[in-house]
Automatic annotation (TrEMBL):
It comes from Aneurinibacillus aneurinilyticus ATCC 12856. Keywords: ATP-binding, Nucleotide-binding, Transport. Signal peptide: none annotated. PROSITE patterns: ABC_TRANSPORTER_2. The keyword tRNA-binding does not apply. This is ABC transporter, ATP-binding protein. Coiled coil: none annotated. One of its GO terms (molecular function) is ATP hydrolysis activity. InterPro entries: AAA+_ATPase, ABC_transporter-like_ATP-bd, ABC_Transporter_VariousFunc, P-loop_NTPase.
Length: 299
């Protein structure tokens, strides 16, 4: 059984209005340690507004943003556009930012070279950021966001305008941060980023959350396992199995179980172990969300 991730942040019925114009309304969701959440929606649907509210850069008109930890959460932010005209080397820029954030010189002297090497910027570390390519500047953007080892990383369109190689490198870096427990909240228009990084996605439409779903389950579809199994405790046993999303007894001893594909082998082994005999295993695809996402990404 997997350990429950800790909840870090919760938005409760958040709304934002500019003068008389309501941009988002009654937005509620939670962010967990190590979870990645994609906020999707057409241009102007309010994605950046929600990110700014999470970051404390904009105040919600109504509703609450709760930080659910005793000590203050550390949040890193990568804006959509990283400033172009910076006449600092990456080293200098990160050092000054770190000092503004109150980080010690000792920490920064260790952390900055480690980040420069992790993001493969050693060969350009003595150039002004002003002279770096867009992809390299975006890497410096991520480095400044994770300099203080945040609990939550907020990324607004992190891959926009980057070539495929740089995109793949950044996706790997984001995945490795996620693996280390950092929660990731991002907006994007790339299916590859969405598929590889997001655990969960919300879709904004008409100012509200129109859809809220777990990505692996919805985009990869489900496996449907039908089995013959007579056990009075079947319901209790299935309730605790990882990856099982629904189950129903079709007759007294025939069960239909819906499971996330990556957990289906383990479930079949478990069912056999419990004395069930497998009748059929089929894939159930639901392209409802894929359609919706394509619609958004094509606008
Ligand atoms: N400071 C502001 N004052 C007035 N209106 C604003 C302000 N900031 C954003 N808006 C409006 O709020 C709406 C949502 O903007 P937001 O930037 O959150 O959308 P978005 O989904 O991030 O869009 P995009 O995909 O184009 O980046 C837009 O209609 C925008 O014009």
């Amino acid at each position: 059984m997997r350990e429950m991730a800790k909840m870090l942040l919760q938005l409760e019925n958040v709304s934002k209005r500019y003068l008389r114009h309501t941009v988002v309304q009654d937005i509620s969701f939670s962010i967990f340690e190590g979870q990645s959440l994609a906020i999707l929606g057409k241009n102007g649907s309010g994605k950046s507004t929600i990110l700014k509210i999470i970051l404390g850069l904009s105040k919600a008109t109504n509703g609450l943003v709760r930080q659910l930890r005793g000590d203050k959460l550390k949040i890193g932010y990568i804006p959509e556009q990283f400033p172009k005209n910076l006449r600092f080397t990456p080293d200098e820029y990160l050092y000054h930012l770190g000092k503004i954030q109150g980080l010690s010189s000792y920490y920064l002297q260790k952390r900055i070279p480690q980040l420069i090497s992790q993001f493969q910027l050693d060969t350009v570390k003595n150039l002004w950021i002003h002279h770096l390519s867009k992809g390299m500047r975006q890497k410096v953007g991520i480095m400044q966001a994770i300099l203080h080892e945040p609990d939550i990383l907020v990324l607004d369109e992190p891959l926009s305008g980057l070539d495929m190689t740089t995109q793949q490198h950044l996706i790997e870096q984001i995945l490795s941060l996620k693996k280390s427990g950092v929660a990731i909240i991002f907006t994007c228009h790339e299916m590859d980023l969405l598929r590889k990084v997001a655990d969960r996605a919300i879709i904004l439409e008409d100012k509200k959350i129109k859809e809220d779903f777990m990505l692996q389950e919805e985009i990869d579809g489900y496996m449907i396992i039908e089995c013959r199994w007579h056990d009075s405790k079947a319901c209790d046993l299935l309730r605790d199995v990882d990856g099982v999303t629904e189950y129903i007894s079709l007759t007294e001893d025939v069960w239909r179980i819906q499971v996330v594909p990556s957990y289906s082998d383990r479930l079949i082994a478990q069912l056999l172990c419990w004395g069930a005999s497998i009748c059929s295993v089929t894939k159930h695809e639901d392209d409802h969300y894929e359609h919706k996402i394509n619609e958004i990404f094509q606008t």
